[in-house]
What we know:
The protein is mainly alpha-helical. It contains five helices and four strands; from the N terminus they run αβααβαββα. A two-stranded parallel sheet has the order 1-2. A two-stranded antiparallel ribbon has the order 3-4. α1 crosses α2, α1 packs across α3 and α2 packs across α3. The N terminus and C terminus are likely disordered.
Amino acid sequence: MGRMSEQSPEGGRYEDGPARALPEYAEQVLDVAELIPPGRVMTYGDVAEWLEQGGPRQVGRVMALYGGAAPWWRVVRADGVLLPGHEQRALGHYRAEGTPLKEASRAAEGHLPRIDMRRARWDGGDRAEGHT
């Protein structure tokens, strides 16, 4: 349970201190994030569907507040655009893990690649034991 003392990707501290447990939904979202294999991604909506509760905004909020200790770069926008403000950190993870990327065209602002969602998206098909 060392997540509360970690920094979020935004660089701030989590709202909950170490004395308070993570909300149950946040724990569930982070557990799903940790199941995603290296080099693969799920969208915020995919995570909500997996859990059969909440929606993309709720998952995004959990990741913003509590995701710093989880593989936050594996939970992404459906359009494959990198997390604003964390593009370089995310790219480092994607390149290290071999996540499929679409290189940006020269006209693209910032020349940042996007995640190749068709190839990188994980449907949870090889679910870890304990999930049904």
